[in-house]
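In response to reviewer comment 3 from the previous cycle, which asked for concrete evidence that the modeling workflow produces usable outputs, we include below a single protein chain processed end to end. The sequence was submitted unchanged, and the resulting C-alpha cells are shown without manual editing.
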Amino acid sequence: MRAIFANLTSADFGGRSKKALRTTERQCVHALFDEIQIAIYEHDHARLDVLMVKLALTTASHRRTS
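The workflow returned the following C-alpha cells.
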C-alpha cells in the first residue's frame, strides 16, 4: 500500500474535482431547461432560440470535457 502513495505530490490533490464541475453543469442545464419550458409556454420563439443555443453549447462543452 505504501508504494501506491510513494509518488504522489501535493499537486496531485489540488484543483477542482470533476464531480463538482459536473454538478455545476447539471444545475446549469436544469436552469436552462426550466427557462425553455417557460419560453415554450409563453410562445416566445426568439427567446426559445437563444436558450436552445445556450443549451447546445453547454452540453457540447460537457461532452468535450468528459
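The chain has a mean pLDDT of 80. We consider this sufficient to address the reviewer's concern, and the full set will be provided in the supplementary archive.
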